[in-house]
Design a protein that fits this description.
The chain has helices at 18-22, 29-36, 51-66, 90-98, 114-128, 151-154, 218-240, 257-267, 278-281, 288-298; strands at residues 2-10, 14-17, 40-43, 75-79, 105-108, 133-140, 160-168, 174-181, 189-190, 215-216, 249-252, 307-314, 318-325. It is an alpha/beta fold. The strands form 4 sheets. It has a 5-stranded mixed β-sheet, sandwiched between helices. It has a 4-stranded mixed β-sheet with strand order 8-13-12-11, sandwiched between helices. Helix 3 (51-66) crosses helix 4 and helix 7 crosses helix 8 (257-267). The model has no long low-confidence stretch (mean pLDDT 96). It binds oxa(dethia)-CoA. Residues 27, 31-32, 35-36, 112, 151-152, 155-156, 218-219, 221-222, 225, 255-256, 259, 283, 285, 314 line the site of oxa(dethia)-CoA.
């Protein structure tokens, strides 16, 4: 029930290589490459670019590919867990930067699954007929929340944004959807201090500064991912009455190359059916899937009629998947 009219993506220009990281924390290019597949990532220069700026560049490219006037957009949804400010949301800032007026603009935070959740929400809104063209963005700047003394997490993430223009379709293009969360494991990916549970406003000095930064229990999230993703693939295929041979491209959240390789192995899907760009951009959280979709379109790996299966997963713990015919 939903058509993708255009895609766009944007990465900040500053490159941070594994060698650069080895000068900041006790790590090595060999460890990062072998354990994650990442060789370099992009990061914003503090004060020069924020999440809304990355979102703006990606959105303009998507609007250009969609060949629409930006004024045709009647809703903006930004999937992010690193908005420019705690308040307001990032989407109204993007609206202003695009020079648009009055249209609804809101954020959606499901950590690394934000874009996938946003896709499902946008689909429902379009199907309802209330809005006609939605700009959906996934954008994050994890370099601004990472603990640069924690080698287990700071080597994984990069900054970036991806955007899509969605429109209600007369043909059934969205073949199946899957959303879910394991709330019991909410603290596996977290920033402990700074929210309403541990407000920094009360007595900032009682808190360890490290608790105001991003923290992830990587190994446990890894186990969650390699168990869950094959199950979600199976459910998406079953719901849409398709077999894996019918799928042209699998676009997983780019969290770790070993997760993609494990999923390929356990599902018997050839690795070359998976889109992989983690080596040059790292894990861009909400940006990961829309950046991958945009790159795949521009490289000709997704064409009109391609069947694309995509799954995002991460903090929450949460996941969201969709299977669509492009
Ligand atoms: O986007 C949200 C979803 N996130 C994910 O999907 C992340 C999933 N998790 C992962 O990708 C992996 O668990 C990590 C990449 C985070 C870590 O890889 P791992 O193979 O699970 O490493 P580990 O945490 O089990 O650590 C193994 C060893 C430890 O040393 P000892 O205790 O065996 O001596 C770590 O201290 O590797 C050490 N280590 C490092 N060494 C060099 C951890 N990080 C590093 C590092 N450089 N950057």
């Amino acid at each position: 029930m939903i058509d993708i009219l255009g895609t766009g993506s944007y990465l900040p220009s500053k490159v941070l290589t594994n060698f650069d990281l080895s000068k900041i924390v006790d790590t090595s290019d060999e460890w990062i490459t072998k354990r994650t597949g990442i060789r370099e990532r992009r990061v914003v220069v503090e004060g020069e670019e924020a999440t809304s700026d990355l979102a703006l560049h990606a959105s303009l490219k998507a609007i250009e590919m969609a060949n629409i006037k930006k004024e045709d957009i009647d809703m903006i949804i930004v999937g992010t867990s690193t908005p420019d400010y705690q308040i307001p949301a990032c989407a109204p800032i993007l609206q202003a930067k695009l020079g648009l007026k009055d249209i609804p603009a809101f954020d959606l935070n499901s950590v690394c699954s934000s874009f996938s959740y946003g896709f499902s929400v946008a689909n429902s809104i379009l199907v309802s007929g209330a809005y006609k063209k939605i700009l959906l963005v996934g954008a994050d700047t994890y370099s601004t929340i990472l603990n640069w003394n924690d080698r287990t997490s700071c080597v994984i993430f990069g900054d970036g944004a991806g955007a899509v223009i969605l429109e209600k379709s007369t043909r059934d293009k969205l073949l199946s959807l899957e959303l879910g969360a394991y709330g019991d494991d909410y603290d596996m990916v977290r920033i402990k201090v700074g929210g309403s549970k541990h407000p920094i406003t009360k007595n900032p000095h009682q808190y360890d500064i490290a608790d105001t930064f991003f923290y992830m229990e990587g190994k446990r999230v890894y186990e969650f991912a390699i168990t869950l993703i094959p199950e979600v693939i199976e459910r998406l295929l079953k719901k849409s009455n398709l077999k894996i041979d019918d799928i042209d491209l699998v676009v997983l959240h780019q969290a770790n190359i070993r997760i993609i390789e494990m999923v390929a192995k356990s599902t018997d899907i050839p690795l070359d059916k998976f889109f992989i760009n983690i080596q040059k951009i790292g894990n861009t959280s909400s940006g990961s899937i829309p950046i991958a979709l945009d790159e795949a379109v521009r490289q000709g790996r997704i064409k009109k009629g391609s069947k694309v299966l995509s799954i995002g997963f991460g903090g929450g713990l949460s996941w969201g998947g969709f299977l669509l015919e492009w």
